[in-house]
Amino acid sequence: MNEYSQLGVRQIHEGLRAGNFSARELAASAFDAIDRLDSQVHAFLELTPELAYEQADAVDAAIAAGEPLGILAGVPIAFKDNMNLEGTHTTCASRMLETYVSPFTATCVAKALDAGSICLGKTNMDEFAFGSSTETSFFGKTHNPWDLDRVPGGSSGGSAAAVAAGMATLSLGSDTGGSIRQPGSFTGTVALKPSYGVVSRYGVVAFGSSLDQVGPFARSVEDAAFALNAISGRDPLDCTSQPRDIDYTANLDAGINGMRIGVVPSLLELDGLTNEVKHAFEQSVAKLEGLGAEIVEVELPNAAAAISAYYVLGPCEAFSNLSRFDSVRYGHHAHGKNLEQRYEDSRAQGFGPEAKRRIMLGAWLLASGVYDEYYIPAQKVRTLITADYTKAFEKVDAIVLPTSPRTAFKFGEVSDPASMYLSDIYTISINIAGNGGMNLPVALGEDSGLPIGLQIVGPQFKDENILRVGAALETLIDIPRVAPLEKGGRS
Amino acid sequence: MTLTEKDVRDIAEYARIGLTDEELSTMTVDLNNIIETLRPITEYELEGVEPTFHPIGSLSNVMREDEVGESFEREVALSNSDSTSEGCFEIPSILGEGGDR
């Protein structure tokens, strides 16, 4: 079987046009890779072969009829299991939604499929996206394709692992505090969280509505840009989606000569930043300078406040959003002696421990008296963090940071919830401000041998800057794009 | 601020999550640990700073004509519920102990 699922988007497009393979063969190759690998990785919660072959045959028919071929036509894609796709289960990796079948399709999924991509299935995640390791999934953990004893990061760990292992060419994830970028860093994938509002959130099960954003995983910056082109844009069904008509691939070859790129010295002194990550970061900055960028020191003085602000705002919004799971219209249903008892039993049985913690925390934070002490100050901190970014971006076109302070950790290694929260220390402030950020794999750790990512952050709604910097730096990176799972790699 | 088990029991009731005594005890420890990490938010100097509730500052109401649009057929809307009756969602008694049928 050919390894078509390891090809990039452009190679697939050109191969289909040249008749080197069919879309049906691409789909078959992807499912073959899943058959071989996913028993070890467990990236997928549900496979959709019937849908995939139907879509593939439509692409092949269009080619045979001489119709123009969209760039994503025939590209195997997977969706995080918090994205509704009509007729599939959308479980959010929770017992609460174990039997829920979507009666409708999320806009981001519809757009990706309308562009001709082939749906392989739905991917594993932390329950309701509450986590940084995909260990809280009710349906079992996902393994990191680089080292099966380690987590893939989270919460979009299944989407990251599917692309890293060469099972899917693209996948979509969602990112509320780092849930695309951190698993991107742990699995060596390009992982983009666009600015809030670039991609519609309609049909994506809500966690933190002022923070959630959908974005792609890919094995190259160009592939991520193609995916963003397909899924972005105004959606009448999400009033926060923005009417922006941008070709995100337009300046990928423009280079970065003369661009001003910010570094934040104080954030490189944080406890927990490992030497290998710091070293890889410094080497990346040197490469950016070598490519002609001007490196400028900027300050984000309130970035350290972001973690506590996030763990106030996130649970408050989650508490509100998850109140919809009342066992009446959908979701796990316990029998109770009256309605109140049924609510309590259904939610007690349906939600896992981390979901319960966040709901309870949100309930407390929004209580009278507590609200003024935590929630309002957190929203004021948001003002300061946003102002920091606005000020910094007056001086630079992009900012670079580590994505995660360390490489992928072992299962169970980080068990205390408060410590787990620190793994998002470099990503969270970007959600709070609403800017975009992308993980670019830049090195294998000199101590761990595991992928290390650089995070590139752009001004709000200037996500094209991020992709431009990433594309330039990517030309100097030489690490495998597919994890060496089958080639005598770690296992 | 430290939560007692009684406080956590009250929060669980408000959030409609049933907890066993053992879960209550673990939850109390976990919540207090997390609340401790949130303490910095109560200590910042924020005099005169306005709160920001949303990352997109320029949102305004979007109006449209009030027209009948597409929506789910009744059977689709009911398809994910475990308890329906005569084309409606069915719930147990709100008062008393009528229970599920």
Task: Note down, in words, how this protein is organized.
The complex is a heterodimer of chains A (491) and B (101). Chain A is an alpha/beta fold and 491 residues long. Chain A has one domain: Amidase signature (AS) domain (Amidase signature (AS) enzymes, Alpha-Beta Complex). Helix content of chain A is 37%, strand content 12%. Chain A has 16 helices and eleven strands. In chain A, strands 1-3-2-4-6-5-10-11-9-7-8 form an eleven-stranded mixed sheet, sandwiched between helices. In chain A, β7, α8 and β8 form a beta-alpha-beta unit. In chain A, α2 runs antiparallel to α3, α7 runs antiparallel to α16 and α9 packs across α13. The longest helix of chain A is centred in the first third of the chain and has 19 residues. Chain B is mainly α. Chain B has a domain of 38 residues: Histone, subunit A (Orthogonal Bundle), CATH 1.10.20. Chain B is 32% helix and 4% strand. Chain B is built from three helices and two strands. Chain B has a two-stranded antiparallel sheet with strand order 1-2. In chain B, a hairpin with a 2-residue loop joins β1 and β2. Chain B is flat. Classes of the chains: A alpha/beta (491), B mainly alpha (101). The interface between A and B is large, with 71 and 58 residues.
Element order of chain A: H for helix, E for strand: HHEHEHEHEHEEHEHEHHHHHEHHEEH
Measured between the Cα atoms of the first and last residue of chain A, the distance is 23 Å
Distance between the termini of chain B: 44 Å
Number of strands of chain B: 2
Global structural class of chain A: alpha/beta
- What composes the largest sheet of chain B? 2 strands, antiparallel
The number of distinct helices of chain B, counting runs of at least 4 residues, comes to: 3
- Pattern of helices and strands of chain B: HHHEE
Report the count of strand segments of chain A: 11
What structural class do you assign from the helix and strand content of chain B? mainly alpha
CATH superfamily of chain A: Amidase signature (AS) domain
- The level of helicity of chain B is 25-40%
- Considering residues with a beta carbon less than 8 A from a beta carbon on another chain, report the largest interface and each chain's count: A-B, 71 and 58 residues
Query: What would you call the shape of chain A?
Result: globular
Poorly predicted ranges of chain B (pLDDT <50, ≥5 residues)? none
Looking across the biggest beta sheet of chain B, what order are the strands in? 1-2
The spatial strand order of the largest sheet of chain A comes to 1-3-2-4-6-5-10-11-9-7-8
